[in-house]
Amino acid sequence: MLEVRNLFKSYDGKPLLKDISFQVGVGKTVCLLGASGSGKSTLLKIVAGLESPDSGSVLFDGHDLANTPPHLRDFGLVFQDYALFPHLDVYDNVAFGLKMRRMNQDEIAQRVANSLEMVNLTEFEKRQVTDLSGGEQQRIALARALAPRPRLLMFDEPLGALDRTLREDLLNELRKILHQTQIPAIYVTHDQEEAFAIADRLLILHDGIIVREGHPADVWSNPGSAFVARFLGLGNVMEGKAIGNKKVETAFGTFRIDCVHTHQKGDKVHVLVRPLTRVERSEPLGEGRRNAVNLIQGIVTDILFQQERFKVTLDNGLYFYLSESPKIGEKIAVQVKVECLT
Fold first, then answer.
1. What is residue 277's predicted lDDT score, i.e. its pLDDT?
2. Residue 168: left if φ>0, alpha if ψ -120 to 50, beta else—which one?
3. Which of 98, 149, 336, 340 has the lowest CB atom count within 10 Å?
4. pTM, 2 dp
5. What is the extent of the structural domain holding 240?
């Protein structure tokens, strides 16, 4: 098991990582999700031994790795730019790390064959890597990382250079390989779809701090903070004022809120507003709906189809994801869930 304890890192006197701690268990994939500059790639380099922290420690199975150089940590790395050797063929690229370990030729041949089989490129041993597509090159990079049977795999934006279809195909295969091999992994990305598809546990970084962590479904359902809700695009984030009895007053009306915090009357709060059922079509305005709890009304000004649902924007600037599309100019009412954020 990998354990990161209380890591701090600064550049030019400015803090980049602030008290980072997490664990990666056997067979688990932890995804570091964040925007550029959030510190996720630096964190990966520290785990790999390519950079040193200002303070804190990285341990594997309880052993501190501070004095262990990168090549002796037995970790595999896969990068966005593949980092293959252009003068070597596929076989020699995959075998490179094994030869550095002075394994015998039979063992090398067997491991190369097994690794290429895992990534579905069994007939590619003698091909030049420069003749391969981007997706094929990334599969070779993955096979090279798998061949030494590392204790940990690390991925730094590995699918960033691929188009959408290739990215989805390779992501599905990668998930199967990680489950099959049970190798623990750290996966760094800024792509939310990738993160939610690959992660057993999600860590969202912002300004060098882990602002939310948990199972992807839990993070999606309970973002916890206004930043995370906005970052993930989960719905409308509003500022409001607590008025007592789990109610909040906002510029868009007064709502009953789901909240576990204790607020005094007049406290400023942030709330997340989304449909009770995220893909449910709202009903038209009507007399029977006007007194409903947590109802938002408006005129449809824009409709955008997004992966089996419609992003519907109203004239008040709020948006909702619905399973059926209304019409531009139509008046609708949406019953919403209003959740308190920190």
1. 56
2. alpha
3. 149
4. 0.87
5. 226-276+287-341
